Amino acid sequence: MEINGHTRTCGLIGNPVEHTMSPLIHNTLAQKLSRNLVYVPFHVEQGQVADAVKGAYALNVLGLNVTVPYKSEVIAGLSQIDELAQKIGAVNTLVRVEDGFKGYNTDMPGLYRAMCSEGIELEGEDVVLLGAGGAARAVAFLCASKNVSRVYLLNRSVDKAQAVAKEVNEKTGKECIYPMALADYRMLPDKKFLAIQATSVGLYPDVDKAVIENRDFYQKIHTGYDLIYKPLQTKFMKLVKDQGGNAFHGLKMLLYQGIIAYELWNQLSVSEEMALEVYEILKENWK
Ligand code: ATR
Q: What topology is assigned to 109-249 in CATH?
């Protein structure tokens, strides 16, 4: 693609950003859709997020993604915020509007679209959600908004599980999140669950760990979805599969959070067919 006087710029702000795969997603989409757009990473130092957002607006940047550790901090510098992002308290996508940027969370719709693409249902399901950090909190909001039957929220620190459950139940008006200690998985009802792995355990380089190692737990799981995509086969996934369940990694979630951001910036929809083409390229270039 030729970069010329009409080229629009999108990018990623975070720290670090050096290992991101987002440029591959967005630049591939721009090429496939013949859009005159480039996507670049911007390493932003601590304390400079508000300046970065202001500067991006002044530079006529079309949109930004936001990654660790700025997904909450960036909110103060926005002119508008989408309702879901507001509830979750984390923004990963900024869309240029008249008077600044509007913040969205495309991580959760991205996870939902990734699950739909794999044929995983949330509505009416009983879900075991592992973790109570930022990622798990957002998944709990997604589950509540998609009318799951129950979410058993298991975390090492049970006080955090309780706090997340209280907040999500209150903000969504659905009493569907049940907090538990991680070690209490034995007390789960005797049936099969969809499990969503949202802790940081098992993330590269800690590839030989899973948040629950006991095989008894995995006998209760029909489908395991790990938000981690490095490595592509986590220990959690292996344990799920060993007990006969289906297991998925988080690379499709990464893809769809990017696709939804791209759709917001360019006001178009990306077909499932094109999404899967980009997914193949993402897998080929995955490091
Ligand atoms: P993120 O933004 O990725 O969610 P986070 O907010 O730091 O990251 O949350 C990390 C999650 O992984 C938490 O649920 C954490 O459990 P605690 O709340 O008890 O700290 C969980 N976690 C991290 N290391 C863990 C470990 N060794 N065993 C069990 N849980 C762990």
A: Rossmann fold (3.40.50)
